[in-house]
Design a protein that fits this description.
This protein is mostly helical. The chain has two domains: 232 residues, no CATH class; 272 residues, no CATH class. Helices cover 62% and strands 3% of the residues. The protein has 24 helices and five strands. The strands form two sheets. A three-stranded mixed sheet has the order 2-4-3. The longest helix is centred in the middle third of the chain and has 30 residues. It is globular, with a radius of gyration of 23 Å. It comes from Streptomyces longwoodensis. InterPro entries: DUF885 (IPR010281). This is DUF885 domain-containing protein.
Length: 564
């Protein structure tokens, strides 16, 4: 194809991709704040999945041409091109392996996307609620497309894991009757709508709930029996593919597994020292944490913990802005929310819309609790909120005009974002925000959880041997049962959280390792930048430059951070 003056540069190709993606995926459009998306849901059928793959292939072909244009080798164009090529190639690898035909789990299936998008759909006006009603009427078709994909997977003997399948059935059941009153989650959601649309909203919500119940019945009665003898783990080949997708690099999985163990031993020694300050003579750090569950500082009440977490983020912004970060006014706004019932157990974050009309939000799943120990919250909200996910993802949106829309929004590498958030926890410890023994032990417990993720996620999917110096079943090979037992013995989290975590790792293999491996990349990049600048190194300037370069795979992250 001949080069013309009007042919696009890589950033233009990337942004055109976002426009076309939003047309195919209105869930993504809603997260970006595209008003036209609010009435629709994606096509989750095999045909819908292939349409997304076709867009990726066409975009890669356009990128080939764009990279030959003069100016394509500038830093901003080069970074965007590398990210776009890596992301789309990884997505196509997953699609071509037909992973979308066995997407079951407890947090990232099409069914979860359908429900979650309503929590960020605008509801400020009657017109907004009319769009909600239309989107609710689209739920049955969206879930039917998802069911068609799973059915084709059964036909092709591409089986989802049994344990996540059972969890999905339980979640769908909860969504159809959230509190035993016979009302489903969608009916509860529309209860706040205007009276002028009451009949329309209630009818649409009942239809959505009926579609969830229908999907639940099919998964329980047809899908689950068909996959009951399938393995819960994926093996090395599939794990490597998923690891590439979530981490943006072809990892040496055996080295990563060994690194997880080295972090386990380092953190255990540090936790034992901190536990002695909390409960002298404690047999283990987790005995000290169990003591804190009963006798440590805590917040009583769901509304109260939401407000307390909001105050924690507000305080972090006030103390960090101008000292270790330079924050635009719209980046300073972040909201604390309570996650809807039937969510996975882990807290999470949703980013702002592109115009910041919807701010970034942190979400706490209460799992029915009303009493919340402080030690378990502080570093987690540094991770989810400030200076973690919120500062990074909101900053990307803030500087989108200097990057590309793709880099600032949908082109996210999980390990980059999760690595930054874990780095943010460590940063707050380095800056002296965690001098209280309770909070610091809670921080170390959270760090240990991320090390455990590397060990058990890689270990059980690859069925690796447990090292001889392990205090737990040395020499045996990992199984999901051993992984859950090990995780539970080395975590302050309750049993339902541990169960949810293990189901998550079986559902989305390779994602959970990105926290610790991403943090390692961020720390190494900072170390190299510090060595390059010597005494002139400015941490605040480095932070803002690092947060303003958009997402990168771990392949590229260390090199780019070292240049700053």
């Amino acid at each position: 194809m001949s080069e013309t003056k009007s042919s696009p540069l890589p950033r233009e190709v990337a942004d055109a991709y976002v426009d076309e993606l939003v047309a195919l995926d209105p869930v993504t459009g809603t997260y970006l704040g595209v008003a036209e998306s609010a009435r629709r849901l994606p096509d989750f059928s095999p045909e819908g999945q292939e349409a997304l793959a076709r867009l990726a292939r066409d975009t890669l072909a356009r990128l080939d041409e764009a990279e030959r244009r003069p100016g394509a080798d500038s830093d901003v164009e080069r970074r965007c091109a590398r990210l776009l090529r890596e992301r789309l190639s990884a997505e196509l690898a997953v699609h071509e392996a037909e992973e979308g035909l066995r997407a079951v789990g407890n947090m990232s299936t099409p069914a979860h996307h359908v429900r979650a998008v309503f929590t960020v759909t605008p509801t400020a006006t009657d017109e907004d609620w009319a769009a909600v009603a239309e989107r609710l009427r689209a739920v049955p078709a969206a879930l039917a497309g998802y069911r068609a994909s799973l059915a084709l997977g059964l036909e092709r003997k591409l089986y989802g894991p049994p344990r996540p399948t059972a969890t999905l059935v339980a979640q769908l059941t909860e969504w159809t009757d959230t509190d035993g009153s016979g009302r489903g989650w969608f009916e509860d959601f529309v209860a706040g709508g205007p009276e002028a649309l009451r009949a329309e909203l209630d009818e649409a919500a009942r239809g959505a709930t009926a579609a969830v119940a229908g999907l639940r019945d099919w998964v329980r009665e047809v899908y689950a029996p068909a996959v009951e003898d399938a393995p819960d783990t994926v093996g090395r080949e599939r794990y490597a593919r998923w690891s590439r997708y979530f981490n943006g690099t072809d990892l040496d999985l055996d080295e990563a597994y060994a690194y997880g163990w080295s972090e386990y031993h380092r953190l255990l020694a540090e936790m034992e020292q901190e536990a002695a300050k909390v409960l002298p003579g404690a047999a283990t750090p987790w005995a000290a944490l169990a003591h804190l569950d009963e006798h440590g500082r805590h917040i009583e009440g769901v509304d109260e913990v939401r407000d307390w977490l909001q105050g924690l983020m507000d305080e972090a912004i006030e103390k960090l802005d101008g000292t270790h970060f330079e924050l635009a006014e719209r980046v300073r706004r972040v909201e604390s929310r309570i996650a809807p019932p039937g969510s996975a157990a882990a807290p999470y974050y949703t980013g702002p819309s592109e115009d910041f009309s919807r701010p970034g939000r942190t979400w706490l799943p209460t799992m029915g609790a009303t009493r919340f120990p402080v030690y378990d919250l502080v570093s987690t909200w540094y991770h989810e909120g400030v200076p973690g996910h919120h500062l990074q993802l909101a900053q990307w949106v803030h500087v989108a005009q200097d990057l590309s829309r793709y880099q600032a929004t949908v082109g996210i590498v999980s390990a980059n974002a999760e690595g930054w958030a874990l780095y943010a926890e460590r940063l707050m410890d380095e800056l002296g925000f965690l001098t209280d023994a309770e909070q610091r032990l809670g921080y170390l417990d959270a760090q240990m959880m991320r090390a455990l993720r590397v060990i058990v996620d890689i270990g059980m999917h690859l069925e690796l041997p447990i090292p001889a110096d392990s205090p737990f079943h040395p020499g045996e090979r990992w199984t999901p049962g051993l992984a859950e037992e090990f995780f539970g013995a080395h975590s302050s989290r309750p049993a339902d959280f541990v169960t949810s975590e293990l189901t998550r790792y079986l559902s989305i293999p390779g994602q959970a390792i990105g926290y610790k491996l991403g943090e390692r990349a961020w720390l190494l990049g900072r170390e190299k930048a510090r060595a390059r600048h010597g005494d002139a190194f400015d941490l605040k300037a480095w932070h803002m430059a690092a947060l303003s370069q958009g997402s990168l795979g771990l392949d590229d992250l260390v090199d780019e951070l070292a240049r700053l």
